[in-house]
Design a protein that fits this description.
The protein has a single domain, classed as Immunoglobulin-like (Sandwich), CATH 2.60.40. The strands form 3 sheets. A 5-stranded mixed beta sheet has the order 3-11-10-6-7, with no helix packed on it. It contains no helices and 11 strands. By secondary structure, the protein is mainly beta. About 20% of the residues are buried. About 0% of the residues lie in helices and about 55% in strands.
Length: about 140
C-alpha cells in the first residue's frame, strides 16, 4: 500500500474512479483574517497492490502544524478495492480520496497534510498559510 500523492486544489472530486481537479498543485493558501477559513480541497491517491485487494484498509488524513500537532480532527475511514477480472499478479489499482474544505487555520505559517494507510509510512506535503493584506479603497479622483 502506497500513498502516491497528496495535492491541494481549488476544487477536487472523484467521479467514476477518476480525479477531477481545478486549480491544483499549489503550496500557498491565502486568508483574509486569522484565525480564518481557507476554501480548498485535498486529494490523496492510494496505490493498492494485487495482494491488498478484497481486504479492508484503514486510512487517516491529518493537517499538522509546524510542531506536528493536529490542526483539526483528522479524517479517518476505511477503503477496500476489489480485484477486477484479469488483474495481473503484482499489479496495482489507484484509490482516490478527497477532503473538501473550507479548513480553518489558527495562524499564518507552515503546515502539512499527512496521510497513511494501516500501519504504513506517513506521506506528507507541506504548504503555507498567509494572511492577505486588505488595502483600504482609494478615494475617487477629484474632478
Amino acid at each position: 500500500m502506497l500513498i502516491e500523492f497528496i495535492v491541494l486544489a481549488d476544487r477536487a472530486e472523484v467521479l467514476g474512479g477518476k480525479l477531477y481537479l481545478m486549480g491544483g498543485g499549489f503550496d500557498r493558501v491565502a486568508v483574509t483574517q486569522l484565525p480564518g477559513a481557507a476554501k480548498f480541497d485535498v486529494a490523496v491517491s492510494v496505490l493498492v497492490d494485487y495482494h491488498e485487494t478484497n481486504v479492508q484498509h484503514l486510512f487517516e488524513i491529518s493537517c499538522l502544524d509546524p510542531d506536528g500537532g493536529q490542526v483539526f480532527e483528522p479524517m479517518r475511514g476505511a477503503l477496500e478495492m476489489g480485484r477486477p477480472p484479469g488483474m495481473s499478479v503484482g499489479g496495482a489499482q489507484r484509490a482516490m480520496l478527497v477532503l473538501q474544505g473550507p479548513f480553518t487555520f489558527p495562524a499564518a505559517g507552515e503546515y502539512s497534510w499527512a496521510a497513511k494507510v494501516d500501519d504504513g509510512p506517513t506521506t506528507r506535503v507541506g504548504f503555507r498559510v498567509e494572511q492577505l493584506q486588505v488595502l483600504a479603497p482609494m478615494p475617487p479622483p477629484h474632478a
